[in-house]
Amino acid sequence: MLFAHLKRILKLDRLRLRGPNGARDEFHMAATAQNLRKMAKLIPMPAQPLPA
C-alpha cells in the first residue's frame, strides 16, 4: 500500500533525478513527505471554543 501510495498520490511513477544517488534522494524525499502526511493526521486538532 505504501509504495502504491507513493506512485499514485505523490506521482512518483518516474524519477526525475539522475543516477543512483539522485534516485535515492528523491525516494527519501517522497517517503519523508508521506510520513509527514501520516503524522499530521495523528495530531489532534485543538478544541475550538463554543460561541457564546
UniProtKB/TrEMBL annotation:
Q: Where is the Transposase DDE domain?
A: 3-40
A UniProt-annotated Pfam family: DDE_Tnp_1_6
Q: Which domain of life is it from?
A: Bacteria
The record's section on InterPro entries has: Tnp_DDE_dom (IPR025668)
Protein name (database record): Transposase DDE domain-containing protein
This protein's species is Sphingomonas jinjuensis
